[in-house]
Design brief:
heterodimer; A: 304 residues; alpha/beta; Rossmann fold; Alpha-Beta Plaits; four-stranded antiparallel sheet; 11 helices; globular; B: alpha+beta; 75% helix
Chain lengths: 304, 277
Amino acid sequence: MSLALEASGLHKRYRRWLFGGPGQTALRGMELSVPRGTAFGLIGPNGAGKTTFIKCLLGIAWPDSGSVRLLGASPADPAARARVGYLPERLHLPDAWKPPAFLSSVARLKGLDVRPAELVALLERVGLGDAVQRRIGGFSKGMRQRLGLAAALLGSPELLVLDEPTDGVDPLGRVELRRLLEAELERGATLFINSHLLSEIERLCSRIGILSEGRLLREGPLEALCRTEDAWEARFVPGAPEAALMAAGFRAAADGGFLIDAKDAVALNAALERARLLGALLVELRPASRDLEQVLADTLRGSA
Amino acid sequence: MRTFHVAADLLREAMARKWFLGLGIAITALLLGLVGGLRLEVVDGALAATRLFGSLVEASVRPADVALRPVFVAASYILFYGGMAFGLLACADFAPALLSPGRIEHLLSLPVRRWELLAGTFLGVVTLGLLASLYGAGGLLLILGAKTGVWTWHPLLAAALAVVGFGTVYSGMLLSAVLVRSAAVSAASGALLLLMGILASYRIPILASMHHGPGRWAFALWSSLMPSLSTLADAAGNVAAARPVAMAHLGAVLAGCVLFSGAGLALAIWQFERKDF
């Protein structure tokens, strides 16, 4: 499978050039591959190196060692960057301009020949159809974020790199943007998202990476990361004796099921036998899964 | 090509700034004031009298082109030093704004080479200076030409020389902005460069008045590297007045300015290419 981006042994330390001391290490041997056509979410605490990784990926910062490939080419190659749409964490926009003027400028720098009607259609797509004639200076944070996303979407890029894409966007707006990104995914684009909003990442991304102190601690498909080895979720025929099951060591799950802690098959079958003896008939059994918040917390705890 | 796009965006940005709106209004008001208030009595190509808002300024009879020379010289110096001072303040923020967090990351992610961004910024600022200078000088020429019948392109050439001087100073401002992202530092470095350019223009009399020693040697070395901005301003004044100019000397001064600009821009690009954002 071809890769949208690939990082190998990436090290980055920011040096202070005046009275600076040793500087700060942002990436310590980062290794990551993201296949084309997937949605990848990079999560981690503040200062983990997420934004630095994106900067190295796009040639905004230069790594001290290691290699980065962006759509099979070097990030320094403008032809590779032409196939990428990027939304920075805090996009600075020209306040005196109107959205179409800003998008035209980005399109020109991307080497795209975009007609004004296409720009308006793009603005409508990101939910700024009513603000086409307004100056950017009067935009809310969420509107600025939408405009930044429109700029990233110009030219239907093969790879979208989004740093906190829903920051400042209201809950309904997040749903709209998520649908828009899902449509991009269906188009065949690769999404690389860096966000603190784990629920957004969980809904959109099929693969997750957890970064802490410049190291990728865990990486893989969402289900694999969230799956637990020693807990199971069981569903019984309606009318199962809940109190008796709880007394027998079962815990209530969020959706009407029950959680069982069992380290191995013997323990699992013993628990199910207890349930059967209580009159609870099993209809579904699957490995219990944690939410991303728990996965992150457990991973960071494990690395400490 | 993208260099021109960056330059064009800078011009669009400038048009939205109050500084430049103010400059445009000020130049236009000055020119309109001249149109309304200046009465020149020209008889057979000779200027008989000049009245400004009704008051008699000049009553001696002289050929009109000769009589206008001091006006063009004064306009040339105002354009050179006044324009330079205005440009130092008004353009100091362009490069720091380009390098501001959230903007530079976005620009660098686009298929634009780093050198194109800086070269485009330099080109945009110089074009802005050229447009403002040509607007002021061209307007003055039109007004005086219409009133006296004397049509000359020399003040336009003087305006172009002023822009070369400004470009020289701006290359240093651009370098300082790449090193330290601050409009204040950029403006201060431009002012310092202008001052050093004025001192370098008088290096021979200054050296003659200095005692031999390391200080004199350092000044000789340093001033030989600086652009001779006052010499260029004097040359622009002479060109505006259509006085004879030593072309070899002017060529050397211009070459020095262009070389200095090129070196400043090259250093800025070299720093910019290796910088992290």
